[in-house]
Task: structure prediction
Amino acid sequence: MKKRFSHLRKQMIFLLILALSGISSVNLTAQNTAEDGNQEAARKPMDPREAVSAEYHALWNDDINREIDERIEKYRKADVSFTLEDAAFREVKIAQRTHEFQFGAQIFNFNQLGSDELNAKYLSLYGEDKFFNAATLPFYWSGIEPEEGKTRFEAEYCDSAEYWNQVKEPTKEPHWRRPCPEPIIKFCQENGISMHGHPIIYCRIFPKWLQEWDPARKDELEKKYADHTRRIVERYQGQLDSWDVVNESVEPTPGKKRYPLTPDDYTFKTWEIAQNGFPKDVLLSINDSWRAVYPPFIRELIDRGAKIDVVGLQMHIFGSKPILDIAAGKDCVTNGTSWKPRDVEAYLRELDKLERPIHLSEITIPAPGTDPRSEAIQAQVTRDMYRLWFSWPSIYRITWWNVVDGCGYAGEPTKSGFFTRDMKPKPVYWALKQLIDHEWKTNLTLKADENGTISFRGFRGKYVLSWTDSNGKERAQEVVVH
Result:
């Protein structure tokens, strides 16, 4: 009972802080209006906690929230001391600017949203000190080599914003969500964004010319795979921090081919080319979804000598019924994935046996509709899941999949973005922004001791320490908390 009252007390304090700061629950509606500049009267948002059932809250109970809080405090913060010049007995402002943890999203709609204004809003989300400090870039074979022997790395007119601003039905364009990579690499380099390449080989999305390949021509097919892999490796070397070498290659039924047009043992053969070609500090990741066969599949590859540096884990909710079932607290396994917090923890423990960091590589949590309750459900489930994932020590990166509604791959939910199609932020954006920019950032004012030393415990990342010295001069120093 004491635990329950303790958690309720924390919730009440949190709500009081929000009220005093003019923020409405986790929707941050006042901040929404101020930052977005949108003065239109909005529908009254619903409190996300009221959008889900008592059964849902029973799953996310006081005990699990307490454990999450304890893990966040233990694994995402560090104790540090800094001695500053001429700061003895002076007040020092401690302002966190960036996160060490990687909050990411794919950036597949680069310049494709139909207007300069929408494109600018989209790209303003990405940067070292922005909402997303990490980005997944598209390297699908179908986009890189749409015609056999003709690669598409550098931008052409059809990749320009001017081109896309004139397109009436963008989803019908063959390179929709498949922008050429090099302008995106330049943008990411200029903005300090950690880049992840996705994927070198993915046997579900092939160029049309390869889809017509005769499977009997096995040796030639294997050479095509190898040539494509070498082309990517040789061109990009150490430009990107990490890569999905092979995407979704696990056979759900062992011994039964998942995709017919694949060479024998292609996952391992592709890995050999990648690990021998990329610099050693480039992280090589395998990527698939929640399956019982996934951990042993990875273990076998590692035992054979595959340099698997990172385990990628997808968690997608496709469809309205699954998210409504989750909000109702029902048993729900969608795309092979359970979304009950204890089940998620159990699967993460299973992956942790591989002793590799985990990238939550593709996340889809949709709103089941456009009404306030639907959007509130999306916000609440996202907030709870991000808290759990952020607390897990082996997870170092979370990548949201579709940032904008209506911009997903065929069959993916249309309401799974943080923003509407016209780039208006949804409650899920404000819920996550509250975590990333407020709850998970350290901002303090402390008095230095007689030596000019300050000590504090803060979230890992870059900080600016500022103070006024004994001569009245404003001073500042950038520091890093690891």
Q: What stands out?
A: Residues 372-391 form the longest helix (20 residues). Residues 56 and 73 are 25 Å apart (CA to CA).
